[in-house]
Amino acid sequence: MNPVLRNLIFNFLLGGAAVATTSYLGTFFDPLVGAIVWAYPITIIPTIFFMRNDKKTNNYISKFLFGTTF
Q1: 55 — phi, psi (to 5°)?
Q2: pLDDT value, residue 62
Q3: 2-9: which pairs have CB atoms within 8 A and are 24 or more residues apart?
Q4: Which residues of 33-59 are buried (b: 16+ CB within 10 A; e: fewer)?
């Protein structure tokens, strides 16, 4: 399988899982719980994984994380 297509499918599945989890928590538990889970930067972890997979330097990743923190 084409690596670009494989990464696209993986991104789609990972993003869909994050949205589905947040939706489930907001619907069946409490909207506040869903909002807290969505606000927590857990969705940044796949981005870091893909940056490391694309051989980005630690300096590049740290600047990215610092920029997205605010």
Answers
A1: 65, 35
A2: 92
A3: 7/50
A4: ebeebbeeeeeeeebeeebeeeeeeee
Instruction: Write down the pLDDT at residue 26.
Output: 92
Torsional sign, CA 55, 60, 64, 66: positive
φ, ψ of residue 7 to 5 degrees: the values are: -65, -40
Model pLDDT for residues 2-47, shown as the tens digit of each residue = 888 888 898 888 888 888 988 999 999 989 988 888 887 777 877 8
Instruction: Return the closest-CA partner of residue 25 out of 15, 17, 45.
Output: 17
pTM over 0.70: no
58 within 8 A of 66, measured Cβ to Cβ: no
Supply 5's token pair: 């297509």
Whose CA is closest to 63, among 48, 53, 49, 42?
A: 48
